[in-house]
Amino acid sequence: MDHGGHHAPAGHAGQAHQPTSWRMAAQATLHCLTGCAIGEVLGMVIGTTAGLHNAATVVLSIALAFVFGYALTMRGVLRAGVGMRAALKVALAADTVSIAIMEILDNTVMVAVPGAMDAGLGDVLFWGALAGSLLVAFLLTTPVNRWMISRGRGHAVVHQYHHG
């Protein structure tokens, strides 16, 4: 992903906040959503195929979303020459809030859409609800990420590693 033009804003408590563009926030959200979507879709597919209870499917999807979300961030940070332990700390700081919000939103949509969790993999309801849930997660998490980046939090902590 192109992170050209990103600068990690200085934004700790009591410091002036840096303006953060919607484009930057959307890119950060899309980056996070990529890992979340891989885990979410994989979890829903595994749970549906295995005939797991809806609650177990949701838990599996959430767990895999965090694993893949952190893994994608760590991949870039590790490429910048950071050690495994430090890369994990960066991923946790960069993505935890964003992934948590996305997972609350997309799983709420999946559970709220009548029949979506019980639809089969060949059913347009399953895939439509899943795609819609990810869109809702993206749209509602982007403003949160914009706010966090403007304060030097969230995805802002990983920006320095994209230029290494």
TrEMBL record:
The chain crosses the membrane at residues 52-74, 86-105, 125-144. Pfam families: DUF4396. InterPro entries: DUF4396. Residues 21-153 form the DUF4396 domain. Keywords: Membrane, Transmembrane, Transmembrane helix. It comes from the Bacteria. This is DUF4396 domain-containing protein. It comes from Sphaerisporangium rufum.
